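Go through this fold for my students:
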Amino acid sequence: MASKNKLFVAFLTVALAAAFGFANNASAATKKKLTYDQAYAKCKSILDKEGTPGTSTQSNVRYTRGAACMKKYGHKL
């Protein structure tokens, strides 16, 4: 009898986790996407606040972080 209860609790846990996961994905999909220019401005301000270097030999760091930030907002470089 105890194994049936454990199986039921495990099934219930998985079902609830899946339901909350689907609800979270649906709410994320309804958020308004930033335009390319808005995302670029936001990412640029973040990089400027961090003090990410953008000079000659260290420009790759800024480029890589900027590309990752733009990807986070759904845009490609």
Summary: The chain has two domains: 1-31, 32-77. The chain is about 75% helix and 0% strand. Residues 2-29 form the longest helix (28 residues). The chain has a mean pLDDT of 78.
